[in-house]
């Protein structure tokens, strides 16, 4: 029996090696960024990869360049196959860290864009998804390359900044695929804009029923981040000539139902530290600190209101209240689900803020 | 026909051997002639002259001995005094004693002999262990003389329960062995099994360690060492007190310990010489090194040939760039360099020390660097092989280290065929094989596989000594308590 097994084992392994897409790492193009666009009933994929000229140990690195390859087809998958066909080397999306969805493709529906990605077993589920604001992904990438930007590195830098600012990243592929299951709420994906020689995230793209509806401005997006309780750090600039930074923040949403009237109570606790004082006034008195606390509360309420007002006025559930109601009021949700779009503008929001300015006031006024 | 003790017979037997002496000695005026029978070079000649021959020549009481029997009784009663004095009538045993270095006086009329142990042959002095050296700890190690080795052990265990049974194996070599165990701790069934195994060895000679090891291990096809050897008497003493059994073989400068489990092979005496946190850290590093040395080359092949998504993107890019101009596949590079590494080790072992160092420099640095510069191998592969090789040398047991070197090849080949699936298959095979190993009734992975979680205090982590309250459950079958539980301080 053992001898039969020993004879069969190499055969089994040989069989495996034929069916396992054996490719040496230098025989493939590792796609770092993939742009997805939709124009004239056709999808275009733009794959950005590095071409290394071989490592020179004396130089201590490789003289690599970023190149872009394109493929088009009736569907994103057809476009990917076209891309593979046209490219000299095999293409792999296994290392792709960022997927850029062009404005037009997002308007046509992100479900089509993300479906083929979700079915590729090699895709990293924590890859980040961005929308390029009012521009095709291909043009966005090309403009960056013309501006001598390292696209992949700039997008990595954006990821680093997101990690610094937020406690979690909601624009990963796996999160978006999960959010897509709840169709009553809007999906928010950060959008990218080009600044002279770098990329920036300004705010969120609002997608209703998977299709791009609007771009949120910076303040509304920050309000959404506060309500979603994902803020790690955020500067607060008060008109009193004081700059603060959040040292702790926590948001808790509670929903109350009265028939089909929904009231959402936003409990927001936060602490700040004084980072800058540009006023002559002595703010380090009890009265001065109370005044600052009041001012920072008003600042945050203003941000929160921006987000809630947008939701009420546009009828888009950008705060994902549907998920909250579904979770907290299971029975009632069954009746409300079909009318949810009509309910959104009638949701009442209440704000309960509790904040304090921490520690740094012991330094006193240095002026 | 059975042989009997007779000087003429023995003289004839060794007539062509010039180093074997059979000399007549006339004792007194009663015409009693006995024969001295010994091997030149194996005896302490000064002691022979002083303690034996001198007594035989000048002792006035010998004149009163009229028969050989009287003479024998007188000598055995203290006439010629030595610590080990024995009357022997068995011809074969007599030959064995003399050929192992003792001296015998033959009494032809009685067909008997008196044997004196005045062995002295060239031997090394007790020195520092070459393989298991420690900074903080005892510096003595075993030598090639069995009795010296048993003495080194006895020096550390002054218990009346320490048993040292003499055994012998080898039809021609008649190699002496001593089976040591503590009778009120060790499992007597295991002792009996080992004794029976040794007694059943029917081979010409025990010329190399493999001759005895292959008889003692239970799974002869396993590459994992199932018998542990150590050069350190303190280690043997510690294992004896845990209930294990030691086998001292004359001519080998180490002692075997049985039963042997995998965790034992990853322990070093240094673990117990340092603070328990440091000892535990070192042990964890050893386990990590074992994983690295087995799987790193295979991981590289799998990641660069099949599942490149397993590499972080920056690493994938740098590996890709480094490999760009290398004409060989990752598998060929890795397996080729692994073979080159083995060749270097072999060459280093065979050469004199001074040339060996030069060879290491030539092979490691010059050839390695030139191969990279000539784009024959990528720098990443050199780093992988170097890391894997160094990690392999972290193993405290040379047998384990050698076994792992072979497994490393197997894993690399599996990864070359089917990437991480091959690696997974290899891992499953290794674990299944380790789980199936049994060493004198004790699981090889014990105490990791103890479902009740006993005796885990000296495995991956080395707990403080005060926690070692009981001896290993599956080794020590009686007297399991190791130390008294300390009272908690108030």
From TrEMBL, chain A:
> Taking every annotated instance into account, which residue ranges of this chain make up the domain Spore germination GerAC-like C-terminal?
203-359
Q: Which domain of life is it from?
A: Bacteria
InterPro entries this protein is in? GerAC_N (IPR057336), Spore_GerAC-like (IPR008844), Spore_GerAC-like_C (IPR046953), Spore_GerAC_C_sf (IPR038501)
What are the entry keywords? Germination, Lipoprotein, Membrane, Palmitate, Signal
One GO BP annotation is: spore germination
Domain Spore germination protein N-terminal: from-to ranges: 21-192
The signal peptide stretch is none
For membrane topology, the record states: Lipid-anchor
Protein localization? Membrane
In terms of PROSITE patterns, this protein maps to: PROKAR_LIPOPROTEIN (PS51257)
One GO term of the cellular component aspect? membrane
NCBIfam families listed in its UniProt record: spore_ger_x_C (TIGR02887)
Family to which this protein belongs: Belongs to the GerABKC lipoprotein family.
Q: What is this protein called?
A: Ger(X)C family spore germination protein
Automatic annotation (TrEMBL), chain B:
Q: Which residues form a coiled coil?
A: none
A GO CC annotation recorded here is: membrane
Transmembrane helix keyword on record: yes
Question: Disulfide bond: is it a keyword of this entry?
Answer: no
The record lists the membrane-crossing segments as 284-306, 380-397, 409-431
Question: What keywords is this UniProt entry annotated with?
Answer: Membrane, Transmembrane, Transmembrane helix
Q: Which GO terms describe its biological process?
A: spore germination
Q: Name one Pfam family in it.
A: GerA
Q: Which InterPro entries match?
A: Spore_Ger (IPR004995), UPF0353/GerABKA_families (IPR050768)
Which PANTHER family does the record cross-reference, listed alphabetically? LEUCINE ZIPPER PROTEIN 4, SPORE GERMINATION PROTEIN
Which family does the entry's similarity section mention? Belongs to the GerABKA family.
Q: What is this protein called?
A: Spore germination protein
Q: Which organism is it from?
A: Mobilitalea sibirica
What does UniProt list as this organism's lineage?
Answer: Bacteria, Bacillati, Bacillota, Clostridia, Lachnospirales
């Amino acid at each position: 029996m053992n001898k039969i097994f020993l004879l069969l084992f190499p055969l089994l392994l040989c069989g495996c090696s034929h069916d396992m897409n054996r490719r040496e790492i230098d025989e493939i193009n590792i796609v770092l960024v993939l742009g997805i666009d939709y124009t004239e009933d056709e999808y275009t994929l733009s794959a950005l990869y590095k071409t290394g000229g071989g490592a020179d140990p004396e130089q201590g690195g490789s003289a690599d360049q970023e190149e872009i390859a394109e493929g088009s087809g009736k569907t994103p998958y057809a476009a990917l196959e076209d891309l593979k066909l046209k490219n000299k080397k095999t293409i792999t999306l296994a290392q792709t860290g960022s997927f850029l969805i062009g404005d037009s493709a997002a308007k046509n529906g992100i479900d089509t864009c993300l479906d083929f990605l979700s079915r590729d077993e090699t895709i990293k589920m924590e890859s980040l998804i961005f929308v390029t604001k009012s521009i095709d992904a291909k043009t966005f990438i090309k403009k960056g390359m013309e501006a001598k930007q390292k696209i992949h590195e700039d997008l990595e830098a954006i990821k680093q900044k997101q990690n610094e600012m937020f406690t979690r990243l909601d624009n990963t592929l796996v999160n978006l695929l999960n959010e897509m299951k709840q169709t009553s709420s809007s999906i928010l994906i950060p959008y990218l804009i080009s600044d002279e020689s770098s990329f920036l995230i300004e705010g969120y793209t609002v997608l209703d029923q998977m299709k791009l509806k609007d771009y949120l401005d910076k303040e509304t997006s920050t309000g959404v981040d506060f309500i979603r309780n994902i803020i790690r750090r955020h500067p607060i600039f008060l008109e009193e000539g004081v700059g603060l930074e959040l040292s702790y923040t926590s948001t808790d949403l509670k929903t109350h139902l009265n028939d089909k009237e929904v009231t959402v109570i936003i409990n927001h606790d936060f602490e700040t530290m004084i980072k800058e004082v540009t006023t002559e006034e002595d703010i380090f008195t009890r009265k001065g600190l109370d005044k600052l606390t009041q001012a920072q509360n008003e600042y945050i309420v203003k941000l929160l209101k921006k987000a809630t007002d947008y939701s009420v006025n546009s009828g888009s559930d950008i705060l994902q209240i549907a998920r909250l109601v579904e979770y907290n009021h299971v029975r009632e949700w069954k009746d409300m689900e079909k009318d949810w779009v009509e309910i959104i503008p009638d949701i009442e929001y209440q704000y309960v803020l509790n904040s304090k300015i921490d520690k740094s006031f012991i330094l006193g006024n240095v002026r | 026909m059975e042989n009997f003790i007779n000087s003429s017979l023995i003289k004839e037997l060794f007539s062509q051997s010039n180093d074997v002496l059979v000399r007549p000695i006339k004792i007194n005026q009663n015409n009693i002639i006995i024969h001295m029978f010994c091997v030149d070079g194996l005896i302490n000649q000064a002691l022979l002259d002083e303690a034996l021959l001198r007594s035989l020549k000048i002792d006035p009481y010998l004149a009163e001995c009229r028969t050989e029997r009287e003479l024998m009784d007188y000598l055995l009663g203290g006439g010629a005094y030595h610590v080990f004095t024995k009357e022997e009538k068995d011809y074969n045993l007599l030959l064995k004693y003399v050929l192992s270095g003792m001296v015998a006086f033959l009494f032809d009329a009685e067909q008997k002999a008196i044997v004196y142990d005045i062995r002295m042959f060239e031997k090394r002095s007790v020195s520092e262990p070459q393989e298991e050296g420690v900074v903080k700890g005892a510096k003595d190690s075993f030598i090639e003389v069995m009795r010296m080795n048993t003495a080194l052990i006895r020096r550390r265990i002054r218990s009346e329960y320490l048993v040292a049974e003499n055994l012998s194996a080898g039809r021609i070599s008649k190699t002496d062995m001593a089976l040591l165990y503590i009778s009120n701790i060790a499992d007597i069934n295991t002792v009996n099994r080992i004794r029976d195994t040794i007694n059943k060895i029917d081979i010409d000679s025990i010329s190399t360690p493999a001759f005895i090891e292959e008889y003692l291990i239970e799974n002869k096809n396993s590459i994992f060492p199932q018998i542990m050897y150590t050069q350190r008497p303190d280690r043997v003493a510690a294992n004896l007190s845990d209930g294990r059994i030691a086998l001292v073989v004359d001519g080998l400068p180490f002692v075997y310990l049985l039963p042997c489990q995998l965790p034992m092979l990853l322990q070093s005496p240094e673990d117990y010489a340092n603070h328990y946190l440091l000892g535990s850290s070192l042990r964890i590093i050893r386990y990590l090194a074992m994983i690295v040395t087995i799987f790193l080359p295979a991981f590289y092949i799998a990641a660069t040939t099949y599942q490149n998504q397993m590499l972080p993107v920056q690493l994938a890019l740098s590996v890709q760039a480094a490999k760009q101009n290398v004409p060989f596949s990752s598998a060929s590079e890795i397996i080729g360099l692994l073979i080159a590494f083995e060749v270097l080790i072999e060459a280093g072992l065979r050469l004199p020390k001074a040339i060996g160092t030069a060879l290491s420099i030539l092979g490691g640095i010059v050839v390695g660097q030139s191969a990279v510069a000539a784009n024959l191998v990528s720098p990443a592969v050199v780093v992988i092989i170097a890391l894997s090789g160094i990690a392999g040398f972290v193993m405290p047991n040379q047998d384990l280290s050698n076994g792992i070197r072979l497994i490393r090849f197997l894993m690399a080949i599996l990864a070359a065929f089917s990437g991480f699936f091959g690696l997974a298959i290899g891992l499953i095979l290794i674990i299944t094989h380790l789980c199936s190993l049994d060493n004198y009734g004790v699981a090889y992975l014990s105490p990791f596989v103890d479902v009740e979680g006993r005796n885990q205090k000296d495995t991956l982590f080395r707990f403080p000594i005060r926690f070692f309250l009981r001896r290993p459950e599956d080794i020590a079958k009686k007297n399991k308590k190791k130390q008294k539980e300390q009272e908690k301080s108030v």
